[in-house]
Design a protein that fits this description.
single chain; alpha/beta; Rossmann fold; Dimethylsulfoxide Reductase, domain 2; six-stranded mixed sheet; 25 helices; 25 strands; 30% helix; binds ligand MGD; binds iron/sulfur cluster; binds molybdenum atom
């Protein structure tokens, strides 16, 4: 068994995290993975990674890993399976997919995926199968859509100042993200700026997170009220002469209209909405006005509300009022998606894509599988699914519907997984998947600017196979249209993409490990103009018609006609009422990554148990004491968990951290039983942090 292994190897973290860390992999003398470290020679990772990935050996050598293909023998979801060979499993899948297609059309097969691995080959090869077969496409709505739409509404492009510039900022505003938990490298660079230059750190969140504990100033706002805060800050900037007039004239669309509009958006007005003191808003605005080199690091969290697009746009507008974009260490950054111009034809087979084939909304999976005609876009029912890199029975909203859907006896479900997740338990066929250290892939950083190679570092155990194998094998069995991508290995794919994108050869990248694709300073800071046709930052976006990185076909969603013309508080959130007097935010847990790592003992021990955190006065109002078992309900369902009293939450707000396994809750109903799937205006997405609830003692 013992093979001679190098003492270290390099890789990239595959998880769905803006940090996409460059990794050093350390081996035991017997060739097993021992520990992972952040690569020191990568200047974004800078030697730092999160604890859960550092102890990756626990996940890689986990006793519960799936090692054999399985076929369901009991009732749906009962959890009884028998072993089956890879060949028989693949043959059976092909037979079922072909019969669904023959009876209901190719659109009745829905390959469903997400970003459990962010590797471009292993994550996105499923698109090749979809396009080559005309299977239903997927509209990716679960994570980034709200935030990206809001950011691009202002800038016209999903990119911004070099994230490493945080280290040379004089002030960093960490807005609606909890990087200590969710993207640790932001803290690395922010703390460097503090140590080296005395930079101030301001954090905006709905409770006192681990990130806020490290801040100089913490602003705790009520969920879904960030646009009010942003407007009041801009009101003060205009009022007190902090607006950069020359910059506004040259680089923005309608500064005078904005100033006039903001006149009534005073700190007192915003205080009543956000729950902050007017003096706190005045102070934050003054500091933002005085410190030109202010770097706004805008996260996803504050956009997971029904008014999230408007909130993101409003927050990004502040940097345009002060002109912070002009300075090194200044501007507003969210994600660098637009800088990687990659030719992914061999991976995705975009040339075979038929726009007439429906694209089903990922978040509406519950409605889709239970036959909602609107969600099915007028097409056939979904009769067969292949699921890779995602765990919808746990992570998707409207969980009761999702479970009902997967319980359908007439739905044939294949789940390719590393663990027996809640979704895998509902499958007809479970296929074991390799982990990232066991296959080749390539990764792009959302929160930075590197394209990073993640080569295979160890042999997989006998049994698990990589995603691309499953895709190519199924394609070969279902009369797929031919495409050269189906005959390529992961390494062939990476080499082809690099060469055809003008980024050299695979051998070059193996030597260099990563490629820095940071655009030049003037481009990144929009000094040659913003991404819109007129080159200006738009305070007045063309909602419903504007550009967005991931715009679905067809009409805009939701009440988009009533979106405010200029940055403003928009009352489209799920407002608390007598029946649902509190507002729930389902923030991420530090030791889980969505539902990943909730299978490891160390992460579960660190997180404790599913809890809801309430302010003592709210708890008193509902007769709840610390540690007590409670029920929490929304318009969509009820969960059972334990209460914890915490002082430092926004008024009327409750927090439940982490996506625990559903069976960690007393009656198997996970946190997403409460959350809604109604698409956020104007281009979709789920408002995971925007749920009106009641809580009561059991
Ligand atoms: N440890 C860990 N890391 C993760 C993840 C995880 O689950 N756990 N998930 C990964 C994924 S998929 C993603 S997309 C990223 C997301 O990472 P982030 O950008 O950090 O976004 P969220 O995790 O949704 O929420 C971040 C913070 O937003 C706050 N928040 C919620 N609502 C509001 C609001 O209305 N206003 C304000 N100001 N703040 C609000 C929450 O309290 C939370 O502290 O993280 C990734 N990294
Ligand atoms: N309540 C609430 N719900 C949320 C959120 C929230 O903040 N609150 N956040 C939302 C967000 S931002 C996101 S992105 C989604 C994420 O939700 P998911 O995309 O479902 O992410 P994970 O829960 O991490 O599940 C990923 C799965 O992929 C598997 N996997 C990893 N690598 C591979 C591979 O190489 N091959 C195969 N076949 N499988 C692999 C893992 O074992 C894991 O089970 O959840 C959303 N749900
Ligand atoms: S911080 Fe994010 S990218 Fe870095 S190792 Fe942890 S999960 Fe992976
Ligand atoms: Mo996400």
């Amino acid at each position: 068994m013992t093979r001679q292994q190098p003492k270290t190897a390099f890789s990239a973290c595959p998880h769905d995290c803006p940090s996409t860390c460059a990794l050093d992999v350390h081996f035991d003398p017997d060739g097993r993975i021992k520990r992972l470290n952040g690569a020191r020679d990568n200047d974004y990772t800078a030697g730092v990674i999160c604890a859960k990935v550092a102890r990756y050996a626990e996940r890689l050598y986990h006793p519960d890993r799936l090692l054999k293909p399985l076929r369901r023998v009991g009732a749906k979801g009962e959890g009884r399976f028998e072993e089956i060979s890879w060949d028989s499993a693949l043959d059976l899948i092909a037979e079922k997919f072909l019969s669904a297609e023959a009876e209901f059309g190719a659109e009745s097969v829905w390959p469903y995926h997400y970003a459990g691995t962010m590797g471009l080959v292993q994550r996105d090869s499923i698109l090749r199968l979809r396009h080559a077969k005309g299977y239903s496409r997927q509209f990716d709505s679960i994570c980034t859509n709200i935030a990206w739409t809001g950011y691009v509404a202002g800038t016209g492009r999903l990119a911004g100042p070099d994230p490493r510039e945080m280290a040379v900022s004089d002030q960093i505003v960490i807005w609606g993200t909890n990087p200590v938990a969710t993207q640790v490298n932001v803290m690395t660079h922010a703390i460097t700026a503090r140590k080296k230059r005395g930079a101030r750190i301001i954090v905006v969140d709905v409770y006192r997170t681990e990130t806020m504990k490290q801040a100089d100033i913490g602003l705790i706002v009520k969920p879904g009220t960030d646009a009010a805060l942003a407007c009041a800050i801009m009101h003060v900037l205009f009022r007190d002469g902090f607006a950069d007039r020359d910059y506004l004239e040259k680089y923005t669309d309608c500064p005078d209209d904005l100033q006039a509009h903001l006149q009534s958006r005073s700190p007192e007005w915003a205080a009543a909405i956000t729950g902050l003191e007017a003096a706190q808003i005045e102070e934050a605005a003054r500091l933002i006005g005085e410190v030109r080199k202010t770097y706004f690091r805008l996260g996803y969290g504050f956009t997971r509300s029904r008014n999230g697009v408007v909130a993101m746009h409003a927050a990004s507008s502040i940097a345009a009022v002060t002109g912070a974009w002009q300075y090194e260490g200044g501007g507003a950054f969210h994600n660098n998606g637009a800088i990687y111009e990659l030719d992914k034809e061999m991976i995705e087979a975009g040339s075979l894509k038929d726009p007439a084939v429906r694209a089903l909304d990922q978040c509406l999976i519950g409605r889709i599988l239970t036959g909602d005609e609107a969600a099915l876009l007028g097409g056939p029912p979904v009769k067969a699914m292949l699921i890779q890199n995602t765990n919808p029975v746990s992570v998707a909203p409207e969980q009761d519907l999702v479970k009902q859907g997967f319980a359908r006896e007439d739905l044939f479900t294949v789940v390719h997984e590393q663990f027996m997740t809640e979704t895998a338990k509902m499958a007809d066929i479970v296929l074991p998947a390799t982990q990232f250290l066991e296959h080749d892939d390539i990764y792009k950083g959302g929160g930075h600017q590197y394209l990073i190679l993640g080569p295979k570092a160890v042999e997989a155990p006998k049994g698990p196979r990589e995603n691309i194998f499953v895709i190519n094998e199924i394609a070969g069995r279902v009369d797929s249209r031919p495409h050269p991508g189906f005959d390529m290995s992961a390494r062939d794919q990476i080499a082809w993409m690099l060469e055809n994108s003008g980024y050299g050869t695979l051998e070059d990248l193996e030597a260099g490990k990563w490629i820095d694709l940071q655009p030049d300073f003037e481009t990144a800071h929009y000094l040659k103009g913003f991404g819109h046709a007129d080159g200006r930052f738009h305070f007045r976006p063309d909602w419903g018609r504007s550009a967005a990185p991931n715009k679905p076909e067809g009409d805009p969603f939701g009440p988009w006609q009533t979106m405010p013309e200029l940055p403003d508080q928009w009352d489209s959130i799920e407002i608390a009422d007598e029946q649902h007097p509190l507002r729930l935010v389902t923030a991420p847990a530090r030791s889980f990554l969505n539902s990943t790592f909730n299978e490891t003992d160390s992460s579960r021990k660190k997180e404790g148990r599913p809890e809801v955190w309430l302010r003592p006065e709210d708890a008193a109002r509902f007769g709840i004491s610390d540690g007590e078992k409670v029920k929490m309900g929304s318009r969509r369902g009820v969960v059972t968990l334990h209460a914890r009293l915490v002082e430092t939450l926004a008024p009327g707000t409750v927090i439940s951290e982490g996506i625990w396994p559903n069976d960690a809750f007393e009656d198997g109903k996970g946190i997403n039983t409460l959350t809604g799937a109604d698409p956020v205006a104007p281009y979709g997405g789920s408002a995971f942090h925007d749920t009106a609830v009641w809580v009561r003692a059991v």
